[in-house]
């Protein structure tokens, strides 16, 4: 026995199928660009950074993970103050756990090196780079070859 359907039911059914197809198409048009951008971003983030040559000698040092220190406020020699946050980058193959486990010593080195400068010295071309170099040199006294770079995430003088 065949069942009869109402004449308007077929039209409503076709309209429902069209809406479902339209919904799937819209979903595909929205998700496809998102997935492409996500894949591009992932691929870009997974690229290895270029290896920079060390100008100090024949060997090169490849940078490894970084350790961010807390924000520090230091009185400079000339009465001004400096507020900064330093991230210490260690050599490849080495871990920053030595620095993290000895954080009071690291913070003392950062404070001591910063307070030995003046605002005028830091404002000179290469002044901040000189501070970074002195921090690395001071850290090398306790942990030779561990820290290869210093990054200032915040650097405010007054």
Brief descriptors of the model:
158 residues, 4-stranded antiparallel beta sheet
Q: Brief overview, please?
A:
This protein is an alpha+beta fold and 158 residues long.
Please give a structural write-up.
The protein is an alpha+beta fold. The protein folds into 2 domains: 8-48; 63-157, 2-Layer Sandwich (Tetrahydropterin Synthase, Chain A), CATH 3.30.479. 49% of the residues lie in helices and 20% in strands. The chain is built from 5 helices and 4 strands. The protein has helices at 7-45, 97-101, 103-115, 119-123, 127-142, and strands spanning 63-68, 72-75, 81-91, 147-157. Strands 1, 2, 3 and 4 form a 4-stranded antiparallel beta sheet that branches. A hairpin with a 5-residue loop joins strand 2 (72-75) and strand 3 (81-91). Helix 3 (103-115) packs antiparallel against helix 5 (127-142). The longest helix has 39 residues, at 7-45. The radius of gyration is 30 Å and the shape is elongated. It starts with 6 loop residues before the first helix and ends with a strand. Residues 50-61 have low confidence and may be disordered.
Describe the SSE topology:
Blueprint: H1 7-45, E1 63-68, E2 72-75, E3 81-91, H2 97-101, H3 103-115, H4 119-123, H5 127-142, E4 147-157
Antiparallel strand pairs: 1-3, 2-3, 3-4
Helix pairs in contact: 3-5
Structural class: alpha+beta
CATH topology of the largest domain: Tetrahydropterin Synthase, Chain A
CATH level-four homologous superfamily name of the largest domain: Band 7 domain
CATH architecture of the largest domain: 2-Layer Sandwich
Query: How many strand units?
Result: 4
By CATH reckoning, the class of the largest domain would read Alpha Beta
Figure out the total of helices: 5
Cα end-to-end separation: 92 Å
Low-confidence stretches: 50-61
The oligomerization state is single chain
Total tally of structural domains: 2
Largest sheet: 4 strands, antiparallel
Q: How large is the radius of gyration? A: 30 Å
Mean pLDDT: 75
The general outline is elongated
Name the helix and strand elements from N-terminus to C-terminus, one letter apiece: HEEEHHHHE
Strand content: 15-25%
Helix content percent band:
40-55%
């Amino acid at each position: 026995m065949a069942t009869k359907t109402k004449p308007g039911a077929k039209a409503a059914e076709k309209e429902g199928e069209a809406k479902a197809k339209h919904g799937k198409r819209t979903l595909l048009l929205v998700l496809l660009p998102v997935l492409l951008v996500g894949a591009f971003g992932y691929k870009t983030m997974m690229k290895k950074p270029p290896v920079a040559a060390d100008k100090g000698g024949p060997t090169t040092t490849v940078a490894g993970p970084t350790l961010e220190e807390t924000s520090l406020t230091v009185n400079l020699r000339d009465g001004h103050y400096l507020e900064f946050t330093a991230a210490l980058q260690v050599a490849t193959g080495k871990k920053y756990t030595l620095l993290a486990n000895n954080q009071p010593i690291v913070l003392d080195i950062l404070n001591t090196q910063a307070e030995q400068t003046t605002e005028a010295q830091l404002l000179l071309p290469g002044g901040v780079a000189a501070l970074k170099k002195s921090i690395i040199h001071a850290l090398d006294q306790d942990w030779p070859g561990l820290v290869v770079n210093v990054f200032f995430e915040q650097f405010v003088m007054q």
